[in-house]
Design goal:
The protein is an alpha+beta fold. The protein contains four helices and eleven strands; from the N terminus they run E-E-E-H-E-E-E-E-E-E-H-H-E-H-E. It has two domains: 159 residues, Quinone Oxidoreductase, Chain A, domain 1; 46 residues, no CATH class. Helix 3 crosses helix 4.
Length: 208
């Protein structure tokens, strides 16, 4: 299959890489239909993220069609079109049970501060990401969500990271009805943060 291949700082190319395989009964193999490039990928590209290894495939925002399923997966079926959030979470550890999926201890057991993330260095578990034709998705019963009928895939892929990021920022900001909010920066996450301010109870947003 074709996939991005990190070769060192400022060196990323498209290469033929081996097809991913089912490694655990809870895995799924997804054929990618949409994939985004996040502004945070620049940190990887520039070599700023510790333990970003040569050969890694980037991409933590993607949708795709389920092509294979491990024998323990119960909530998905072959052919389902899913959006796959960037966090990789087991759904059962002490952090997941508190809704802190970004701190899942099982998906990145050697870390102390972050769970697994697709395509974001071995610091985040070493999982290849969605800038590829196919991806292995661990814990497939937990995070992947079937795309509703009639939903545009260009909209669905935004729900894997950028829109939830903007929503969380608006919520964490403690913005009240009638507040005027200035959102600084031009990255898509900040744009969607501004849009979420508008969506949350009619608040007003100005971007700068």
């Amino acid at each position: 299959m074709l996939a991005t291949n990190y070769r060192g700082p400022h060196r990323v190319r498209i290469d033929h890489k081996p097809m991913p395989e089912i490694l655990h009964p809870q895995d799924a193999i997804v054929r990618v239909t949409r994939s985004c490039i996040c502004g945070s990928n620049l940190h990887l590209y520039n070599g700023s993220v510790p333990d970003t290894r040569v050969g890694m495939t980037f991409g933590h925002e993607f949708t795709g069609v389920v092509e294979q399923l491990g024998e323990a997966v119960e909530k998905l079926k072959i052919g389902d079109h899913v959006l796959v959030p960037f966090n990789i979470a087991c759904g059962k550890c002490v952090f997941c049970q508190q809704g802190l999926y970004g701190n899942c201890h099982e998906s990145n057991s050697q870390a102390t501060a972050v769970g697994g993330i697709f395509g974001y260095s071995h610091t985040a578990g070493g999982y290849d990401g969605g800038q590829a034709e196919y991806v292995r998705v661990p814990y497939a019963d937990v995070s992947p969500t079937v795309v509703p009928d009639g939903m545009d895939l260009d909209d669905a892929v935004l729900l894997t990271d950028v829109v939830p990021t903007g929503y969380q920022a608006a919520e964490m900001g403690g913005i009240q009805r009638g507040d005027t909010v200035v959102v600084c920066g031009s990255r898509s996450g900040r744009h969607h943060g501004g849009q979420m301010c508008l969506a949350l109870r009619g608040r007003t947003s100005h971007r700068g």
